[in-house]
Every structure is written in C-alpha cells, then in structure tokens.
Amino acid sequence: MKKWNHALVFFLAFAIAGYAAVQYGLFKASDAGLVAAKLQEPDFQLTPWVYVLYVHIITAIMALVIGPFQIFQRKSKPRGALHKQLGYVYVLSIALSGIVSIYLSFYATGGWISGLGFFTLDILWLATTWMGLRKIMAGDIKSHKEWMLRSYALTFAGVTLRIWLAPLVMLFGEFEAGYHAVAWLCWVPNLIIMEAIIRRKTPRAPFPVHDSQSPPNL
C-alpha cells in the first residue's frame, strides 16, 4: 500500500508538471483556463502579471518534481551530496515561487476570498520550508524531515488544485465560486493529512513508572 501511495504521488506530480510545461511552454498562456478566466476580468492587464506567473510556474514545477525524490528516499540508503544539492534547489525554488505567488495572490480570480486562501498558502509554504532548512542546519534531522513533509504537502497544492477545480466548478455552477473554494481546499486537507501522518509516525513518550516501594518525593 505504501509503495502504491508513493507511486501515485510521483505520477500526479510529474503529470501536472508535464501538463504545465506543455500548456505554458508550447502554447500561449492565454489559452490556459486560469489565464483565460483572468482575461475576462475588466481592466485586467496581462503584463507584468503573466511574467510573474511564468516565474511561479517554472520554480513550482521544479519543487514539485524534486520533492518525491527527497521525501521518499529509503531509510537504509545514506543521504549524500545529491540529496543535499537537490534540497538546496528545492528550497530556492520555493523561496522564489512563494515570493512571486504572494504578488499573484493580490490578483487572484474571485477577489479577497481566493486571494486570502492563496496568500495564506504562500506564507505557510515559505515558513515550513524555512523551518525545514533551519532544522537541518541545526543538525535536527527528525524535525527537518517533519517540516519538509509539511512543505511538500503545500507544494502538492499545485496538484490538488487541478483535481478539485473542475468538480467544484460543476458543483457551484460557476467558475468564480468554485475558485473561492479551491483556494482553500487545494492545501488545507493536504496539511491536515500530512500532520496526521507525522503524528502517527512520532512515538509517544512512555508514562513514567513509579516504584510503589519508594518513598514519595518531598
């Protein structure tokens, strides 16, 4: 079951990365559904917004495809120079993508409801990744792994957004209402599920056992 879950994450990450690369690399950005929706808004200026969008897409794709190789590495296999180098690329990609995404959140389709959802995602994305970097620099490997798992759960929002969007639009009957919901549903469940996984893996501290023969502490 665990191997199937890992395979699914790999498949979805590379499928969405491939879709984004083809959609924005081989075709016009205006042909993409999300951009087409933006162009329908009155007084919307495509530039410089679209150039910031490209920076976000390129860096987010890099983080999305690097993540599974980092978090699913076998415990028995030593994490050497490649893991460290990919880790730096992952962190740098999120630093760039997260910063430009904050800008994009102010122009999110659907106004402040969508914007607040994506803004919160961006802040948490940067914060969890920074905590993961800080922990490994301090030599705390366990905490580093936990924070990087949270970070990738938020990175994976790029996948879950596209899984949720079409059903939500059909459910609400209009794109904007569906986008309000997806701005939160693309990352909140991811983070909750990952937190549950982390806590399940963390061993509970045993209760202290007191010797009935020993005198009580004064």
At a glance:
With 218 residues, this protein is mainly alpha-helical. It contains 9 helices and no strands. Helix 3 packs antiparallel against helix 4, helix 3 crosses helix 6 and helix 6 runs antiparallel to helix 9.
Question: Topology of this structure?
Answer:
Elements: H1 2-25, H2 33-39, H3 49-71, H4 81-105, H5 112-137, H6 141-155, H7 157-172, H8 175-185, H9 188-201
Helix pairs in contact: 1-3, 3-4, 3-6, 4-5, 5-6, 5-8, 6-9, 7-8
What does this structure look like?
The structure is a single chain. The protein is 74% helix and 0% strand. It is mostly helical and 218 residues long. The longest helix is centred in the middle third of the chain and has 26 residues, at 112-137.
How many helices? The count is 9
What is the straight-line distance between the termini? 52 Å
Mean pLDDT equals: 87
Tally of strands: 0
Which characteristics define this entry?
mainly alpha, single chain, 9 helices, 218 residues
